Amino acid sequence: MLNVYLAPRSFRAPVPPEAAQTALLTWLSDEEIVGPFADGAYSPGRSASRLFHADALDSFLPAELTFDALRIVRSPKPRFLPERAGKSFPEASCLGCGDTLDSEKVKEALDRLKYVAPERFGVSCPGCRSALTLRTVDFGQNVAVAAYWIFIEGAGLGRLSPSTVERLSRVIGMPLIYIPETTDEEVADWVPARRERRR
Ligand SMILES: [Zn+2]
Fold this sequence. Notes:
The protein is globular, with a radius of gyration of 18 Å. Residues 194-199 have low confidence and may be disordered. Strand 6 and strand 7 (131-132) form a beta hairpin. The chain folds into 2 domains: 4-78 and 143-198, Cell Division Protein Zipa, Chain: A; 90-138, no CATH class. The strands form 4 sheets. Strands 4-9-1-10 form a 4-stranded antiparallel beta sheet, with helices on one face. The protein is built from 4 helices and 10 strands, in the order βαββββαββββαβα. By secondary structure, the protein is an alpha+beta fold.
């Protein structure tokens, strides 16, 4: 299952004020991106496909561009996203020198974030020997540290529409980025398989 997070770009973003959170949900319902709310989640609305990147229409039918559930998540303390347990980042590299990092060490440092604050994340670069932080590692995909985010479960596609993300950022009052729980490589593996099935 493909899950996507929409979270503040800034690692230090505060939880948005109630009024902004309400404005976001009003916008999502008015635009019919979300439908009714039940059991802590919103179901997809009639225009749920607007969440997704227009390029996706080459590979997916509009009816496939939907999601299972959309949840608003508030965490008492900031968390690293994506939070899929045991997730590894084989492509992680040093932003300074570009060297690939030891993926086991990156995974261990991320696992430690269950117990320590995100600022205490640390791995060392085998190339330039720098002590790296979450900000100086290129994970090969978007990541975030957030206490408030939107979680889209069972998304038809990991790539969201840039204009919808920009609009949501304006409504909530802070820049948002989308974070796939699955890497682009994994998604690329799926798309040809889907095309194959539709022939
Ligand atoms: Zn380096």
